């Protein structure tokens, strides 16, 4: 395990808890001026006392440090890892014996590829000017070219591995991200990359980046991979825009057709169910009526077998009771004389007439 500090290379965004050098120089200078006024100038004792005061002042100044709420401090003693320190005010052995490196483990960090955000404090967040255009140029699986811009959001999950296992983990993460994105884009056609395959690319790239980060023991957890602008090369950009518009028009028509389908089909399904229920009701009605008629006929047949004349007479009379009330003008013929009886008006409103 090497005691590599993150201050090398392109610089680090996190300090170690020490105050700026100008403040320290001013403090030492003021102490020297006070000692010169107190002690005689040029005497050996004054030089020794001055040196002791300087050492004590520097030691007191470097004996404490503050860890922010979103960070932890990794303490090294003579370059060897000692412990992790939680947020708050802490003390350490001064004069460079203990060195505290603050690591923001709760802060979400990001790296941008193909573009740069002005004012970024992390030197590895944005690409170098010479790499900004190069890292966006990719070849797709159908041997076409595309300009891909993306963002990787990550957190420091293990500050010890982040500081000591890899020489410069943030720079390594940039290389890993670019390598994985080129691999994922190279497995798809240019139409998939520009139009319909963005979510699949993001998910696959996230999985592979996290796998490599774990394999290299970088102490980094990848939260999200988000594709930004994906464009074809400028010579063919106009044609690709037309294809993209056609794809959007296709999706629009499909959505409209689905909307009409969802509007018409449920209504037809409801009418179908209603018709089926009506048919079932009519079927049950006819079955019950037929069964009732059959039962009545069976009962009538049994009575007819016992007394045919009486039963026939009763049926005749019941039939007349059902038919005659619906006839307004009636003519009755006597069966014995075969003569027509006088007209008998049975209208209930007018009463019988001779």
How would you briefly describe this protein structure?
The protein has 354 residues and is of the alpha+beta class.
Task: Report on this structure.
The protein has 354 residues and is of the alpha+beta class. The protein contains eight helices and eleven strands. The protein has helices spanning 21-38, 44-61, 159-164, 169-186, 190-196, 198-215, 237-306, 308-323; strands spanning 64-67, 72-77, 80-85, 88-91, 98-103, 109-113, 137-139, 145-156, 220-231, 329-330, 344-345. The strands form four sheets. Strands 6, 7, 8 and 9 form a four-stranded antiparallel beta sheet that branches. The protein has a three-stranded antiparallel beta sheet with strand order 3-2-5, with no helix packed on it. A hairpin with a 5-residue loop joins strand 7 and strand 8. Helix 1 runs antiparallel to helix 2, helix 4 crosses helix 6 and helix 7 (237-306) crosses helix 8 (308-323). 16% of the residues are buried.
Please name the defining characteristics of this protein.
elongated, three-stranded antiparallel β-sheet, 354 residues, disordered N terminus, alpha+beta
């Amino acid at each position: 395990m090497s005691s590599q500090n993150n201050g090398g290379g392109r610089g680090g965004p996190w300090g170690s808890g020490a105050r700026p050098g100008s403040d320290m120089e001013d403090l030492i200078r003021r102490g020297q001026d006070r000692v010169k006024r107190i002690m005689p100038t040029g005497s050996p004792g004054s030089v020794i006392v001055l040196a002791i005061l300087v050492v004590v002042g520097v030691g007191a100044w470097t004996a404490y440090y503050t860890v922010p709420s979103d960070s932890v401090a990794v303490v090294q003693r003579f370059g060897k890892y000692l412990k992790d320190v939680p947020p708050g005010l802490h003390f350490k052995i001064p004069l460079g014996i203990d060195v505290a490196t603050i690591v923001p483990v709760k802060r979400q960090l990001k790296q941008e590829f193909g573009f740069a955000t002005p004012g970024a404090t992390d030197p590895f967040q944005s690409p170098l000017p010479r790499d900004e255009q190069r890292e966006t140029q990719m070849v797709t699986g159908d041997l076409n070219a595309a300009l891909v811009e993306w963002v990787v959001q990550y957190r420091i999950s293990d500050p010890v591995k982040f500081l000591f296992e890899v020489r410069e983990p943030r720079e390594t993460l940039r290389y890993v991200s670019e390598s994985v994105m080129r691999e994922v884009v190279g497995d798809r056609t240019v139409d998939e990359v520009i139009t319909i395959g963005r979510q699949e690319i993001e998910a696959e790239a996230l999985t592979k980046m996290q796998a490599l980060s774990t394999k290299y023991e970088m102490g980094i957890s990848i939260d999200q991979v988000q594709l930004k602008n994906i464009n074809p090369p400028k010579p063919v950009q106009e044609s690709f825009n037309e294809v993209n518009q056609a794809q959007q028009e296709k999706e629009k028509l499909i959505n409209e057709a689905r909307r009409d389908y969802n509007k018409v089909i449920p209504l037809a399904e409801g009418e179908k169910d209603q018709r089926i229920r009506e048919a079932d009701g009519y079927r049950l009605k006819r079955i019950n009526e037929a069964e009732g008629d059959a039962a009545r006929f069976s009962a009538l047949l049994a009575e007819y077998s016992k007394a045919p004349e009486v039963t026939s007479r009763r049926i005749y009379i019941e039939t007349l009771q059902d038919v005659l009330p619906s006839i307004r003008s009636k003519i009755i013929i006597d069966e014995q004389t075969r003569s027509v009886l006088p007209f008998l008006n049975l209208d209930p409103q007018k009463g019988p007439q001779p």
